[in-house]
Amino acid sequence: MGRCRAPDGPHPGVRRVPDPYNGPMAAYPVRVYGDPVLKQAAREVDEVDASLVRLVDDMVETMYDSEGAGLAAPQVGVQKRLFVYDVGEGPEVMINPTIVEVGGEWYHDEGCLSIPGLRLGIVRPNQVHIRGYDLDGGEISVEADEFLGRVFQHEVDHLDGVLMLERLEDDMRKQALRVLRDRSLGLDTSAMEAKLVSAESEREL
Ligand code: NI
Question: Count of alpha carbons within 13 Å of 15, Cβ hemisphere only?
């Protein structure tokens, strides 16, 4: 897999530092439900330097290793406002993203790499207009709907310390939390999961 676009020249406000790493790309372990880092809001990125480029490359590697379609920095324990995604058109990064407008409504199954195996039906806005920055410090503006719109909302939630469980309706959230509790106790949750989880298998985020 190729690297994400690297800085190709000086950009205003971007401090260039030597790359402190020389080794091959490395995948991170993905932090899972129960890890406090997933409940914390991440901080804005104020400069794109070589270590940030390296982080993005490693996050892309981690996303592919996990067969996910999106991954936010807090999911690898890094409290920075950025995420990577690939919905079939190659890896992309979004730094300091802001959702500026949403519209419509879409009920769709959603899965999270940090809550493995639980794909749950969630209602969210369908159309999303998001703005952010790329690795060159250039502004990105993307309008998306359906799955990509879902990816953007899910990953921005991660940057705010919000998990998809909080987007579930009360009854379903209670059942999902019970599955997670029983799992942590080593109990067999397959019967409960069968009632909750649909057969659809969209990639996790
Ligand atoms: Ni997730």
Answer: 6
Centre of ligand 1 to C-alpha 111, Å, is 7
CATH number for 48 = 3.90.45.10
Task: Report residue 55 as tokens.
Answer: 């982080």
Number of domains in the chain: 1
Q: Which residues surround ligand 1, an ion (CB under 5 A)?
A: 112, 205
**Is residue 203 one of the residues assigned to a domain?**
no
For ligand 1, the distance from its centroid to the CA atom of residue 47, given in whole angstroms, is 25
Active site positions, annotated: 155
In a domain, 39, yes or no: yes
Is residue 91's pLDDT more than 90?
yes
Reply yes or no on whether the pLDDT at 127 is more than 90.
yes
Give the domain extent around 188: 3-194
- Ligand 1 centroid–CA 188 distance in Å is 23
Rounded distance from Cα 193 to ligand 1 centre (Å): 18
pLDDT 10s digits, 158-176: 999 999 999 999 999 999 9
Q: What is the distance of C-alpha 172 from the center of its chain?
A: 22
Q: Give the per-residue pLDDT at 18.
A: 44
The DSSP 8-state label assigned to residue 167 in this structure reads G
